[in-house]
Every structure is written in structure tokens, then in C-alpha cells.
Task: inverse folding
């Protein structure tokens, strides 16, 4: 009977608009959820039967059915935070995370570290990225990004630069005589055997710091003025002073500019105690001989001690860079992103995460800012893309549709009651 069919039609409308209100309510409830993607619902009519008549066939509908509930993967607005592990994707792609050894995907970049030092989501899934070797070079291997235990390995000193000013020898001043009586003793060179002295810090193969002393001796004569000698001295593992090599000669022109600089052949530094022998080349370029006092203009060397991780920064290309206590920086990992040929077909599994489905296609994995992938922004979070004003508008429309469908049911009920009364 057509009246009964109209009841079913009205019920289908109530069910459909009820589900629509559920989708709208879920969107509104997640308006402040980081990385949330709002959903939209689509409907299709339901065909009941085809009736043949004089004017041809006619089709009667049986109401409405839900075709799909589809996530809207548009970009959400970005918010700045104070946490360097907060990361937003500006553009295409999903973060890859491991949850119980299963890879899932998310746009929620509200990351932190767990007790093992892994970078994880708020639900504990471990962020995935391209790992690095000991030197910080990015490899193609994907794994858990872990910060705990990340260190900067020591670098042995191999080169150094030292620039000083050596005051000219005063008229009538005695020229000191360099003596090597201190070699093999714990007593350093004594005053009166040199004019000036300064030090350079050098690091051995284990990252231990050692002091290398540079003793400058004026060797000028009336016949050969403006000449100096530099002797390098260090202490071995026993604390005894040793010579790092033969004395090196310096010469200056009348204006005090260095004209003869010693060859930067490596000094031999036998630190011992299980460390490799040092070989440091010291460049004295920039050293002068002008009036005034002895002064160190600059000193530097390329070695450093081991360092522990102090802070982390994530770049727009996904590089996770650590700053260490020894002043060095090193790449720890690089975030990898995933894309899908049909991302709206991913399966939502809660906690702002998606899983691959049979309809989504296989993940395409790459680094940020490559092959169509978006960039990663540290100290930022992507907000929900829900437009609350649009959701309220949709809610009003759904409410009106629900009321209209309920009116169909009540009207049909009235007609059926009238029909029942006619039969009595």
C-alpha cells in the first residue's frame, strides 16, 4: 500500500538526517582537535518500484540512503607553539607513526618524547623517519626517531690557527737563550729563556683536552733583525713536558708584517693513555711585530670533546637537528611523509590517525619539500579544518529536513487512522 510506503520513506529520511546530525556533531566536537579533518555526508535516493501506465512507466522512490561519509582533507590553519617538537605539515602528506609495529598515518604533529627517548604522538605511537649514520648523513632506512643516547662524537684536533703580536726587542735588551733542560720533567720552561708565551687547546682521539704551549723567543741580531723562534711544548700522560718538534723560525719586515712563516707541518703530540698520537698543524698567519705589548689576536682549532644533546630543531625539509654541549650540531634523522592516490579512502581508527585501506592505494613515501610533499614547520600545529559557522548552517538544514520527514510520518499516521475509522 502506498501509505505504508510513505511511512518507510519518512523513516528513511529520519535515519539519514539523524546520521547527518551525528556527522555534524562529531565535526563540531572536534573543532579544537589538532590535525582533525572534518567529514561530509552524501545521500542517494532509493528506488522502490517501476509502475507501468497509459503514459508509460513511472518510478516510485522509497526514500533516501547514505552514500558515503568522506573526510575533507583541506589544510587547517597553523598555530605557533613554544614546543620545538610540535610540527605542522604545510601542504600534502601524512606523518608516519608506528603503533604496536603497525604503520599508521596522521596530520596531528603534537609530538613529545617517551621514557625511551622516542618521539611519539600523544597516544604513544612512535614517529618514523629516515635514520642517519654516526656522521649525521641521511640514509634510506626508515625507523623510530629517537633522541635518547644521541651524542656528538669527539673530533681530534688536526689544524689550528694562532695570530699574536710580538713587541720588538727594546734597544739594549738581552736576547733570551732557549733551553731544553725541562724536557722529560714536570717543570715547564723557566722565565728568562723566552720572551712571550700563550697556549692552544687540542683534543685527542678520545676527546680529552690538552694544552699546547707556544713559547716565542726573540732571536734578532744587529745583522739579522726582526727574527723570532717559536717552540711548542706539551705534557705527556705522565705529566712530563715534551717538545712537539723542532723550533720554527719567524721573520718580519720593517713594518712588522710576517714575511717568513714556518711550514705548517704537523706537530707530533704523543698523548698516550690509549689515545692515538696527535698531529696538529698550527698556522701563524696574521702574526705581527709592532710596538706595544704582547697580545693574542686570535686562536682557533678544529677539534672538540664529545657532547650530549641539549636541544632539537626540526627544519622545513624535515631534518631533525641536534645541538650538543660541545657546540656542535648534527642531523639526527629526517621526517618522512606519506601520500596516497585516494587519501579520502583511508580508514579512520581514532586518536587522529588513519590506516591504509584497500581503496586508498599504497603509501608513497618521501621527504618533506620533495615530489609534491608539503613542508614541515617546527613550533607549529595544524588546527582542525572544521568551519564551525558552516557546520551550524548544515545543522539548521538537517534539523529542518528531520522535522519535514517527521511530518510525513505523522501525516501518514493520520490518514491511516482515518482509513481505519472508515472500516468500522
Result:
Amino acid at each position: 500500500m502506498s501509505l505504508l510506503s510513505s511511512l518507510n520513506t519518512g523513516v528513511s529520511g529520519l535515519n539519514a538526517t539523524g546520521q547527518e546530525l551525528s556527522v555534524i556533531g562529531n565535526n563540531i566536537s572536534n573543532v579544537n582537535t589538532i590535525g582533525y579533518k572534518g567529514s561530509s555526508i552524501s545521500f542517494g535516493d532509493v528506488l522502490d518500484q517501476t509502475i507501468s501506465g497509459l503514459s508509460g512507466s513511472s518510478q516510485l522512490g522509497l526514500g533516501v540512503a547514505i552514500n558515503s561519509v568522506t573526510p575533507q582533507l583541506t589544510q587547517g590553519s597553523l598555530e605557533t607553539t613554544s614546543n620545538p617538537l610540535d610540527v605542522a605539515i604545510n601542504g600534502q602528506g601524512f606523518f608516519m607513526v608506528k603503533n604496536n609495529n603497525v604503520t599508521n598515518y596522521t596530520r596531528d604533529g603534537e609530538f613529545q618524547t617517551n621514557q625511551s627517548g622516542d618521539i611519539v604522538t600523544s597516544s604513544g605511537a612512535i614517529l618514523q623517519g629516515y635514520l642517519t649514520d654516526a656522521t649525521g648523513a641521511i640514509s634510506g632506512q626508515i625507523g623510530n626517531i629517537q633522541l635518547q643516547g644521541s651524542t656528538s662524537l669527539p673530533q681530534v684536533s688536526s689544524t689550528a690557527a694562532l695570530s699574536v703580536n710580538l713587541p720588538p726587542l727594546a734597544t739594549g735588551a738581552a736576547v733570551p737563550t732557549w733551553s731544553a733542560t725541562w724536557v722529560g720533567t714536570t717543570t715547564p720552561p723557566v722565565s728568562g729563556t723566552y720572551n712571550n708565551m700563550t697556549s692552544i687547546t687540542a683534543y685527542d682521539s678520545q676527546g680529552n683536552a690538552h694544552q699546547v704551549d707556544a713559547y716565542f723567543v726573540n732571536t734578532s741580531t744587529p745583522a739579522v733583525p726582526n727574527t723570532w723562534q717559536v717552540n711548542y711544548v706539551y705534557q705527556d700522560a705522565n705529566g712530563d713536558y715534551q717538545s712537539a718538534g723542532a723550533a720554527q723560525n719567524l721573520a718580519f719586515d720593517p713594518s712588522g708584517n710576517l714575511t717568513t712563516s714556518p711550514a705548517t707541518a704537523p706537530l707530533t703530540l704523543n698523548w698516550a693513555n690509549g689515545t692515538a698520537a696527535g698531529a696538529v698543524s698550527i698556522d701563524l698567519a696574521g702574526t705581527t711585530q709592532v710596538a706595544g705589548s704582547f697580545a693574542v689576536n686570535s686562536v682557533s682549532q678544529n677539534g672538540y670533546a664529545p657532547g650530549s644533546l641539549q636541544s632539537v630543531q626540526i627544519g622545513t625539509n624535515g631534518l631533525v637537528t641536534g645541538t650538543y654541549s660541545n657546540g656542535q650540531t648534527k642531523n639526527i634523522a629526517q621526517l618522512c611523509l606519506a601520500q596516497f592516490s585516494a587519501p579520502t579512502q583511508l580508514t579512520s581508527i581514532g586518536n587522529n590517525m588513519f590506516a591504509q585501506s584497500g581503496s586508498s592505494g599504497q603509501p608513497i613515501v618521501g621527504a618533506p619539500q620533495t615530489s609534491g610533499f608539503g613542508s614541515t614547520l617546527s613550533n607549529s600545529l595544524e588546527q582542525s579544518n572544521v568551519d564551525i559557522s558552516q557546520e551550524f548552517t548544515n545543522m539548521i538544514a538537517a534539523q529542518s529536513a528531520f522535522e519535514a520527514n517527521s511530518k510525513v510520518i505523522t501525516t501518514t499516521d493520520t490518514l491511516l487512522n482515518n482509513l481505519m475509522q472508515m472500516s468500522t
Observations:
- The radius of gyration is 39 Å.
- The chain has three domains: 2-73+385-422, 78-152+308-382, 159-301.
- Residues 2-73+385-422 form one domain.
